[in-house]
Structure to design on (461 residues):
């Protein structure tokens, strides 16, 4: 596990001698890591040169804060979207030129990316109703509940899937119409109830999602994303998430201007609302031309914030959405500027949580640009990745060696840092016992490390 607390404390902590492979006395500069992590801590000392004055590399990357937020006004966002529309068809996604990453297992749960998988509907079924809370707040006195639309369906106090199954096909369209009318009500309780029922109707059935989209519910749901009542906002964002799983509804959601409001939920919503907003953006990002629009609307910084402070599910949702968005180069740059690299490097060492491999996939994507590579090195990413090669899972080792290869392919300094981390023994072991893909990458990387060192000035910065 890598200690990130001191990762920016000394930009000169990796001085290299002229000969990387000549053993010498350990440098006084220390690499910070948890004590007792592995024997690599001892081995790496033998690759350090005592001649610190002969060649010292300093970081040219400016210090980054943990979270950098773009100050995006509505006019700036609209201007960006206008520029994107003008050139959308002339620019191909950079992902077409990137090496294919096997993420079928690392990000396999998108199909379950709905509030239903997190148990939110079961939680709602057990929650006290708003009317009961009002009654308690009024000393037990009876409070007249606000009327709700569609007696027998919308007025049910507890929600469950049995409600959906009880609606006959011939009654579905009138029910949807009543719920859509309820979204226009002046009553918050009616809006909340109508959004909750549409959320349930769109939960499982594709034909329901199609009908709700065709009936005009999407433009009526979007204003509720900015509603001050957190339950109303949560029902609305989850309804839009469920509706977005139907392909034709993606276009309706985008054309109705939902992206900016979904980003608003990411910034201001409850934990569950933020998670479902991230999943809704992920669903929309499955259409390639939407990725740059989502990034231009300011989605990256709040996703990074969710990555830092969210629950386990929130972090996984943020990771998956960031991965999808960062196939576009502009979004890679936004993610690096927003401070995504530091928490991603921290997650690399979280073995057994399901985060490590996903974090490395996103890091590999960010390593596709110069700024990303510099940030990974600055945040002690080489240390974390070498530890995965030594102790990680089979798939984790593949992702780790791929990312290290990206960092070192054209950069002599990074090769030196890799050698100082004691990477050669675990790379040799990986080249002999790893998967077919890992063996190939490890052999290629070892070949770079065996090349004679050129003058540092000839290396990539």
């Amino acid at each position: 596990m890598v200690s990130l607390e001191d990762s920016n404390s000394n930009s000169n902590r990796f001085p290299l001698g002229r000969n990387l492979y000549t053993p010498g006395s350990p440098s006084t500069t220390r690499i910070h890591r948890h004590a007792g992590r592995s024997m690599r801590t001892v081995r790496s000392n033998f690759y350090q040169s005592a001649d610190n004055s002969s060649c010292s590399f300093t970081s040219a990357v400016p210090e980054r804060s943990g979270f950098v937020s773009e100050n995006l006004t509505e006019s700036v966002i609209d201007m960006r979207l206008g520029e994107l529309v003008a050139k959308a068809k002339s620019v191909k996604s950079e992902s077409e030129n990137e090496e294919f990453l096997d993420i079928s297992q690392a990000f396999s749960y998108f199909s379950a990316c709905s509030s239903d998988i997190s148990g939110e509907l079961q939680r709602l079924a057990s929650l006290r109703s708003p009317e009961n809370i009002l009654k308690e707040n009024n000393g037990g006195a009876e409070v007249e509940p606000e009327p709700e639309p569609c007696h027998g369906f919308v007025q049910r106090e507890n929600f469950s899937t049995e409600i959906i199954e009880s609606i006959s096909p011939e009654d579905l369209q009138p029910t949807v119409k009543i719920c859509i009318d309820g979204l226009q009500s002046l009553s918050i309780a009616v809006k909340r109830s109508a959004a909750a029922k549409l959320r349930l109707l769109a939960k499982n059935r594709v034909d329901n999602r199609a009908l709700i989209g065709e009936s005009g519910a999407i433009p009526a749901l979007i204003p509720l994303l900015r509603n001050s009542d957190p339950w109303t906002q949560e029902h609305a964002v989850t309804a839009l998430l469920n509706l977005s799983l139907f392909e034709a509804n993606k276009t309706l959601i985008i054309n109705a201007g939902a992206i900016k409001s979904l980003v608003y939920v990411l910034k201001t919503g409850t934990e569950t609302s933020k998670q479902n907003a991230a999943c809704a953006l992920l669903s929309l990002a499955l259409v390639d031309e939407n990725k740059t629009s989502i990034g231009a609307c300011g989605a990256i910084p709040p996703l990074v914030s969710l990555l830092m402070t969210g629950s386990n599910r929130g972090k996984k949702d943020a990771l998956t959405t960031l991965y999808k968005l960062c196939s576009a180069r502009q979004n890679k740059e936004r993610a690096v500027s927003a401070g995504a690299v530091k928490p991603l490097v921290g997650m690399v060492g979280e073995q057994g949580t399901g985060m490590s491999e996903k974090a490395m996939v996103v890091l590999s994507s960010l390593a596709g640009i110069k700024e990303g590579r510099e940030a990974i090195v600055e945040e002690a990413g080489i240390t974390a990745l070498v530890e995965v090669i030594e102790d990680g899972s089979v798939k984790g080792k593949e992702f780790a060696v791929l990312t290290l290869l990206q960092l070192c392919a054209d950069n002599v300094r990074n090769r030196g840092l890799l050698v100082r981390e004691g990477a050669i023994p675990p790379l040799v072991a990986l080249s002999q016992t790893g998967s077919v893909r890992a063996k190939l990458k490890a052999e290629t990387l070892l070949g770079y490390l065996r090349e004679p060192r050129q003058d540092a000035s000839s290396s990539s910065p």
About this structure: The longest helix spans residues 169-183. The radius of gyration is 26 Å. The chain is about 55% helix and 0% strand.
